[in-house]
Structures are given as structure tokens and as C-alpha cells.
Design a protein that fits this description.
It is a single chain. This protein is α/β, with parallel strands linked by helices. It folds into 2 domains: 170 residues, Rossmann fold, CATH 3.40.50; 172 residues, Response regulator (Rossmann fold, 3-Layer(aba) Sandwich). The chain has 13 helices and 12 strands. The strands form 3 sheets. The chain has a 7-stranded mixed β-sheet with strand order 2-1-3-4-5-11-10, sandwiched between helices. Helix 2 links the parallel strand 1 and strand 2. It is found in: Cell envelope. Keywords: Signal. InterPro entries: Bact_Solute-Bind_Prot2 (IPR050555), Peripla_BP_I (IPR028082), SBP_2_dom (IPR025997).
């Protein structure tokens, strides 16, 4: 993955999208009302309910009016996700799109689907221990490198002193492992000491906040910044500093550009987040699932974990570029929602209206 060049990734994305569009241009009645499973991992992150599922359903409807999307969320329970997958197979789905709760345990789901000739599309998180039929995601290792390097550069520019805390994602999530690896590529050679790091079970913000609270006590006055792997853990870190009465709160990263995180960036409480236009991956996954439902194998742009894959490169969002990012076509959040209530003054100051 590290060898990927952005230009090659973007070019391949265009080619793949073109091929997919051609595949999807056939009559929507071809599938005869095929059922497609869309299995998401948790509700700790708001994105799955608010964006991924609705966007995937909308794209599938556009591609195949008679197809039916069967959506379920496992609420961070790997056993529950296994049951959901088994139920989908029993209902005769033509493809399963899955963002696994437990990347290792999901190998069983892949094998069960393979025994019934049902293609599995890994979504957002890979399944390293079993070869899925396809993987669609943003480049997770790149995400880790981008948020961490952005923080390191800021700390150097501001001549900050002290070390860095690293709040990783779930230890059973392979995507979290990729993000973690990417973070280390920026933090390890930065010259800033890595004070401590934590793998957050289930991406649970409460557990992340409790851990950061303990580190604030242990490393009092020594924390220059925090690299948090997503907006939930980033918001939790910020809450821990505020609860401890630390002012100003050290710069904290994030990832996913959730509403609360974008508002924190605008207000200055969170240093950065990552804009991953979810429509990009949701549409791509729908294109892939539609192709498989038609009995076609979509061409990959790269191979990751021995799986044909399509990876997209996201954008780091800081206070300096947040206005540009949130006003770009396709950004999921509305300015009216971002700038509501207490955030209006900060938006007005940035010229975001």
C-alpha cells in the first residue's frame, strides 16, 4: 500500500468507475429483484446510520430499481453480525457488502458465503484472514499518516514541547490496524516522544476518554498533542482534557468528518479530521455489488490482503481549509447544520454561511 502513488490511484479510480458505469448501464430489470445485503459494524460512529446505509440504498436503487437492499447493523457484536450474515444467506442474497466488527472473525462469514457462491464485498474494513471477492475503502494507512503528519507539522510550527499520545481504534478491526501503522510512520520519526498508545476496544469513546484521563494524570504538563484515530476517540480525548481543567486543550486529531467533529474544528477545539466523502465508497460498493449480482467480476485497481480492491484518498480538514471542504459539492453535511446554535459565531468568523 505504501508504494501506491496518488496519481495512479486516482487514475485507476476513474477507470474503475467508468467500467462500473458501463456495467450498470444495462436494464435495471436484469437482476429480477436481486437481494443485496449491507451489513455495518456499529452505532458508535454515527456515519453508518446517517450516511453509508442511505447512500448505498440510493445508489442501488438507481442501478437496479427492482433490487432490494437488506440493511442491518451489528452494534459492535461480532457474533450478532455472524447471525445477520447467516440470515442474509438463508434469504438468498446475491451479494453481501460487509464492514466487519471483527476482521478476523469475519473470515467465517467469507467462507460461509463462498460455500454458497455468494460474493463478499469488504467495505471500509478489510478481512485479512480470508479472501473476500472485493474490497472498497479509503486508504486507511494513508489516513493515519495524513492525520498524524498534519499534527506533527503543527507541533513543529508552533514549537510545542512535550510528547504525543496515540489513541488507536479497535484491536480487532483490521482497518484500525492500518490507520495505526500509518500514524506510526509520521509519529515515530517526528522527534516527539510517543508517551503512550492505546487500542480502544470497539472504538468506544468512553473507554478512550477514561484512558486519556489516566494519561493526563500520569504525564501532567507533558502532552503536546494527541493523535486519535477517529472523531469519536478524538472527541473523547478533548472531553478528558476539559474535564481535567487543562487549558488550552492540546491539539487533537480525528477522522470521519462527523458533524460534531467539524463543529469542533471550526470552533478550534479539535485540530483536524478527515473528510472521506462517504458517497464515494457507498456508490463504489453499490457498483461492485451490482456487477457481482449480474454475474460480472469488476476489475480492481490494486490488490490488498490478496483481495481485488478499490481505494480512495481522503482529505485532511483543519480550520484553515474547512470552509473550502464543507462547501464542496458532495460534502455530506449541510452548512446550516454545522453552523447551528453555539457554532454560528465561529462560522461567521470564518465566513462560512
Amino acid at each position: 500500500m505504501k508504494a501506491l502513488r496518488l496519481s495512479a490511484v486516482l487514475a485507476a479510480s476513474v477507470l474503475a468507475a467508468t467500467a462500473m458505469s458501463a456495467c450498470g448501464s444495462s436494464s435495471s430489470s436484469d437482476e429480477g429483484g436481486a437481494k443485496i445485503a449491507f451489513l455495518m459494524p456499529d452505532i458508535a460512529s454515527t456515519r453508518y446510520e446517517l450516511f453509508d446505509a442511505p447512500l448505498f440504498k440510493a445508489k442501488m436503487k438507481q442501478l437496479c430499481a427492482k433490487c432490494e437492499v437488506l440493511y442491518q447493523n451489528a452494534n459492535s457484536d461480532a457474533a450478532k453480525q455472524q447471525q445477520q450474515a447467516d440470515s442474509m444467506l438463508a434469504q438468498g442474497v446475491k451479494a453481501i457488502v460487509i464492514d466487519p466488527v471483527d476482521s478476523a472473525a469475519a473470515a467465517t462469514i467469507v467462507n460461509s458465503a463462498r460455500s454458497r457462491n455468494v460474493p463478499i464485498i469488504a467495505y471500509d474494513r478489510p478481512i485479512p484472514k480470508a479472501r473476500a471477492d472485493y474490497y472498497v475503502s479509503f486508504d486507511n494507512e494513508k489516513i493515519g499518516a495524513l492525520i498524524a503528519q498534519s499534527l506533527v507539522d503543527h507541533l513543529k510550527d508552533t514549537k510545542a514541547e512535550g510528547g504525543i499520545l496515540q489513541v488507536n481504534g479497535s484491536p480487532i478491526d483490521a482497518a484500525a490496524g492500518l490507520i495505526k501503522n500509518g500514524i506510526h510512520t509520521a509519529v515515530d520519526p517526528s522527534g516527539f516522544k510517543l508517551l503512550a498508545e492505546y487500542d480502544t476496544p470497539g472504538w468506544d469513546p468512553t473507554k478512550a476518554q477514561n484512558w486519556v484521563s489516566g494519561q493526563i494524570t500520569q504525564f501532567k504538563g507533558q502532552i503536546a498533542g494527541v493523535v486519535a484515530a477517529n472523531d469519536g476517540t478524538g472527541g473523547a480525548a478533548i472531553a478528558a482534557f476539559k474535564a481535567a481543567g487543562v487549558t488550552p486543550v492540546p491539539p487533537v486529531t480525528g477522522n470521519d468528518a462527523e458533524l460534531a467533529a467539524v463543529q469542533r474544528v471550526i470552533k478550534g477545539d479539535q485540530y483536524n479530521t478527515i473528510s472521506k466523502p462517504i458517497k464515494t465508497v457507498a456508490d463504489a460498493a453499490a457498483e461492485v455489488a451490482h456487477a457481482f449480482a449480474q454475474g460480472r467480476k469488476p476489475a480492481p485497481q490494486v490488490t490488498l490482503f490478496d483481495t481485488p480492491s478499490q481505494l480512495f484518498t481522503p482529505t485532511v480538514v483543519t480550520k484553515e481549509n474547512v470552509v473550502k471542504v464543507v462547501t464542496e459539492p458532495g460534502f455530506a453535511l449541510k452548512v446550516a447544520d454545522i453552523c447551528a446554535g453555539e457554532y454560528k459565531a465561529a462560522c461567521d468568523e470564518l465566513g462560512l454561511k
